[in-house]
Amino acid sequence: MSEITKSAVSELSRPLRKTLMPWIGFVILLLALPNIFSSNVGLYTMNLMGIFIIFALSYNMLLGQGGMLSFGHAVYFGLGGFMSVHFMNYIEDGLFVFPMYLVPIFGGIIGLVFAIIIGSFSTRRAGTVFAMISLGVGELMAASSLIFVAFFGGEEGVSGDRTTGPELAGIDFGKDIHIYYLIAAWVFVTVALMYLFSRTPAGRMANAVRDNAERAEFIGYSQRKVRFVSFCASGFFAGIAGGLFALNFEIVTEENLNALTSGVVLLMAYIGGVGFFIGPIVGAVVFTLLQSILSNYTDIWQLYVGILFVLTVMYVPQGLTGIIMMHTAAWRMKRLGILILPYLRIGIPALAMLAGIAAFLETVHHMRTAVEGETLMSLMGIEYDSHGIVTWIVILVLTFVGGYLTRTQLPQLREAWETANKPPASTKGAAS
Amino acid sequence: MLELIFFSLLNGIVTGLLLFMLASGLTLIFSMMGVLNFAHASFYMLGAYFAYTVSMYLGFWVGLFVAPVLVGLMGAVVERYGLRYVHRWGHVAELIFTFGLAFLIEEIVQFVWGKDTKAYHEPEILQFPLFTFFGQNFPAYKAFMLLVSIAIFVVLLLILTRSRIGLIIQAAIHKPNMTAMLGHNVPLVFMGVFGVGCALAGLAGVIAGPALGTFPGMAVVLGSIVFVIVVIGGLGSLTGAFVASLLIGLLQTFAIALDYSVNDFLHLFNISFDADGALRDLWTLSLPQIAPILPYLLLILILIFRPTGLFGNRET
User: Fold this and answer.
1) Backbone angles phi, psi at B132, to 5 degrees
2) What is the SS3 assignment for B286?
3) d(CA B300, CA B112)
4) Which residues contact B200 (CB under 8 A, 6 or more apart)?
5) Which chain regions cross the lipid bilayer (chain A) (predicted)?
6) Residues of A whose CB is below 8 A from B282
7) What is the CB-side half-sphere exposure of residue B298 using CA atoms within 13 A?
8) Which helix (DSSP H) or strand (DSSP E) does residue A379 occupy?
9) How many CA atoms lie within 13 A of A232 on its CB side?
10) Distance (Å, rounded) from C-alpha B39 to C-alpha A256?
């Protein structure tokens, strides 16, 4: 947490140009991406990524910045999606004229309205009580969505058509690339807004209440009001993400507001790292990649995600971003080079071990699910006999030799890490 | 009407006592460690699956004893090497850890046993109707479930209030540091309680598996309901958990049994509404329909108006 404060203070004193650099880079990246990954799968993945980035960032306004652990954040996402898809249908029916690209606003508004209603009683406490209320509300909404068929469409959900709105300079969002640029624009605007929110006094007080609610009360802030403001803002942005989901997929179902989606957003934010603003972005990108790429290769990708999640919670609670950020000190001192060789030395056996474990899981899975008598399986383009003795020897050797070698490399990595992070003698203390 | 009430009452008590087997462990674990164990229902599921596998080779009765022990050992391992390690990152991390564990256990169950429902049945000597009342049969297996639940409840009560172990556990709940000072190994007590709590959940799974189905979603179905019970009863209160379990069990069975809708209610006052407005679903809403959401509604109301729960005395 102190890193955030420190970087913010130094940022204010930095020239404006330097502050804007990451944002300009962000725009360039958003514009360039579809030219690099122009395939349909690429566009599909990037669209989903954009939606999840907004969703995960809005979640982190609660967990990371406000210290509120929510198990029902999908409620606002789903309601935003349902509201938007209804508005898409209203536009199609000609009930009123409204540009399609602004429809997610309605999603945001309904997210905000529900956040105001639910936040008015749930933000009284943080911690377990808040978590339980959010869980209850989430289950309540998910169950209601199957009852109120007129609004939620029951099991099959509600579908719409995004191409029916008034055209804007010949763009009717019929192509995936159009919707990509739309999502990219929304991502940029909402990410900027959420970043700016975290820099406002309201955002700062959310951090203070998270760290010590009692002290915040003593300097004159109501912890409840501070949480309420964060909660409403978070609901609004989650609703926008839901609206974009509706525009992108043109269908919203009960699945979008149930506990599974709430779990997924927690997973994304936590894997990415809740202590950093860009953490959830990293998490959303990684999760979407896992979801769309890994699921092409294996049926048990969710098992890998689960293992990754539990390992993250246990050993790297600061998330993937935390691991990257650990290297900033060494990078500032231009000592990152020292670490390359140790990383390679530990990385290669570690990769071998991971490959062994993955091969083990895949082979067992194949043995259990394949048709009787079918023993030939292929993994990453390598075909082999899943019942063969050679296969199992290879798997065992990869796992255990890899694991053993990884262990032997740990001391040298630790040593290199200490060398790289040792404060220089002249400016002792300043760089740590 | 009478037989409806009679059978709803019986079924409600069976469900309620089954829920109590889960809730008692959960609430004990919570009062010791301050952690709501999201994975508790996953241990219930593991109990059912272990018992299924054991029963295929050695029969139901062996499974009834072996599976809970296995689940309890797994629980102890999770506490010792997982939860205790994560404890250093704080309460939120612990909560998220158990949440992730629930997710992971479901995936592991799917990996090991597959996604389909397992043919895990009650033993043949319990496959007969115990008695017939107004033409409806009451299966003997349900009576067996009732019996096991009551036995567990009595044993648990006796251990906690009458035995030396129970005394130490209660002391460790209220004053862990002082108990440690007196020479008791409090971390070991924690591990033991976590293991026994998981074993109870596993036992619930063993006896519920044949009745409610053994499938990978069974943890999710029951998981959040058990939370609701623990919170409604008051976090950390065994009496509360008992009352709330019965309450939720009865609430759910009666809501399903009594088929009344908002329309019927409004007819009493001679009010009727058109059948195709946007709110049409509201007027045709019936009790069986809203049965699944009633516990959550109760949960939210309790948390708003009485955050300590019915019998609890602390909030977080």
Assistant:
1) -120, 130
2) strand
3) 37
4) B21, B22, B24, B25, B68, B152, B156
5) 20-37, 43-62, 74-91, 97-117, 129-152, 178-197, 228-247, 267-290, 302-326, 346-365, 386-405
6) 148
7) 25
8) strand A376-379
9) 13
10) 23
ipTM above 0.95, yes or no: no
Q: Shortest Cα distance from A306 to chain B (angstroms)?
A: 5
Q: Which structure tokens are listed for B163? A: 């035995």
Which pairing describes strands A251-252 and A376-379: parallel, antiparallel, or unpaired? unpaired
Structural domains of chain A sorted by starting position, each given as residue range(s) with its CATH number in brackets: 14-321 (1.10.3470), 328-421 (no CATH)
Residue A78: CB atoms within 10 Å:
31
B136 three-class SS: strand
Tens digits of pLDDT across chain A (432 residues) = 445 545 555 555 557 777 788 888 888 888 888 888 878 888 888 999 999 999 999 999 998 888 888 988 999 999 999 999 988 888 888 777 778 888 889 899 999 999 999 998 888 877 778 888 888 889 888 888 887 777 787 778 888 887 776 666 666 677 778 888 889 999 999 999 999 999 899 889 999 998 888 898 998 889 899 999 999 999 999 999 999 999 888 888 888 888 889 989 998 998 898 888 889 999 999 999 888 888 887 778 888 888 988 988 888 888 888 888 888 878 887 777 777 888 888 888 888 888 888 888 888 888 777 766 666 776 666 777 777 778 888 888 888 888 888 888 888 888 888 887 777 665 444 443
Q: Which residues pair with B133 in a beta bridge?
A: B136
The C-alpha of A151 sits at a distance from chain B's nearest C-alpha, in angstroms, of 8
* Per-residue exposure over B155-171, b if at least 16 CB sit within 10 Å of its own CB, e if not: ebeeebeeeeeeebbeb
> Distance (Å, rounded) from C-alpha B190 to C-alpha B311?
23
A364 Cβ contact partners less than 8 Å away, ≥ 6 residues apart = B111
CB-nearest to A133 from B89, B111, B303 is B303
- In this prediction the pTM is 0.86
- Kindly list the residues from chain B whose CB atom is less than 8 angstroms away from the CB atom of residue A121: 300, 304
At A372 the three-state DSSP class reads coil
- Check CB contact of A361 with chain B, cutoff 8 Å: yes
Residue with tokens 């699956």: B49
Min distance B272 CA to chain A CA atoms (Å): 19
Contact criterion met (CB < 8 Å) for B95 and A133: no
Closest residue by Cα to residue B40 from B224, B316, B309:
B224
Please give the torsion angle defined by the CA atoms of residues A223, A226, A228 and A233, in that order, rounded to the nearest 10 degrees.
-160
